[in-house]
Structures are given as structure tokens and as C-alpha cells.
Amino acid sequence: MIKRYLSIFLTTMLLGLISCSTQNLQDYKAERPVLDLKSYFNGTIDAYGIFTDWTGEVTKRFTVVIVCQWNGSKGILDETFTYSDGSLQKRIWHLERLTNGKYTGRADDVIGEAHGDVAGNTFHWSYTLRLPVDKTTYEVDFDDWMYLVDDRVMLNKAKMSKFGLPLGEVTLSFVKRP
Fold first, then answer.
1. Is the Cβ–Cβ distance between 121 and 28 less than 8 Å?
2. Fewer beta carbons under 10 A from the terminal one: N or C of the chain?
3. In this structure, are residues 61 and 52 in contact, taking their beta carbons and an 8 Å threshold?
């Protein structure tokens, strides 16, 4: 009986450790092409995305047009979302490039400041967003990873959670207009 409880305990601990594992940004530092956010997010970008809930079911589809511009180390990403149900949403990011590949960002629906880092072809970005759902607004944590594929295409996966519990994922493909 003790062996059975010990086995269940060890399995539970192992599953807990696996579920807590996260990517390490530095694992991407040798990946090419090298991502320069200021260069990529400059001009107009079209994005196509889905939201999947915690069960993996696609619950929303959307497109985004992002108009981007930089003045020195400060950038503006003006995002216009169009959802499959016809609703619209606007978000304007104010980014600042710091030293050593670090970035900060603010937007009206972001609580506090977003923080991000670049290594190789990858950008990791974390923030808390006020997310309207029906007639309620939730504060949701985003763990956002972007991977530059080539000079025009970048893929994005963002995990959403509340109190450390997974709510779902956002998957996006960015395509920079020529």
C-alpha cells in the first residue's frame, strides 16, 4: 500500500514539474534570422489568429492590422482587431527599446508595464491584460512568444492564465507587407 501511495505521489510530482517547465529564451540565441523588433515592426503588418480555450477548442478567430512606427528607441504599434463575429477592438502599444535586447511596453488595457527580451529569432513578452468577455472584464496574464521565420513572417503563441491556471492560448501569424 505504501508503494502505491509513493508511486502516485512521485507521478503527481513529476507531472507538476513538467507542467511548470518553461522555455528558456537563451536557447534561441543562435537562431537565425536575428529578430530586430524595430526593423520588423516598422510599416504595416497583417496578422491572422485564433483563440483556443483550455480544452483546445477554437472559440474565436480574428485578423489584425498593425501600423508600426519608431522614433529612436520608442515605437508605436497601432493594432486594429476584427473578430469573426464582426466585433472590433483597438490596442495601441507604446514600446521602448532598452539595453541588451530588453523592451518595455504600455497600452491602455495593459496593467502596469509589459516586459520583454529578444534572443536570436525569438521575443518573449509578459504582461497582464484587462480582457473584456461579455459584460465582465478579467485581468489575465499573458506569456507571449514570437518567432521570426523570415523577413516577412513571424509566428506567435501566447499562453493565457489566471491565478496560474491555464485559460487558453492565442496563436497568430504576422505577415509584414512589402
1. yes
2. N
3. no
Q: What is the pLDDT of residue 1?
A: 53
Q: Given the C-alpha cell 491555464, which residue does it identify?
A: 166
71 SS3 class? strand
Cβ atoms within 10 Å, residue 146: 22
The tens digit of pLDDT for each residue in 32-65 reads: 999 999 999 999 999 999 999 999 999 999 999 9
What residues are paired with 168 via a beta bridge?
53, 160
Between vectors from CA 150 to CA 144 and to CA 156, what angle results, nearest 5°?
A: 15
Mean pLDDT across 156-175: 97
For 116, other C-beta atoms within 10 Å of its C-beta total: 20
Contact 122, 148 (CB under 8 A): yes
| pTM score | 0.86
Identify the bridge partners of residue 93 per DSSP, sorted by sequence position: 77
Judge whether 77 and 90 are in contact, CB under 8 Å. Answer: no
Q: What cell numbers appear for 132 in the block?
A: 473584456
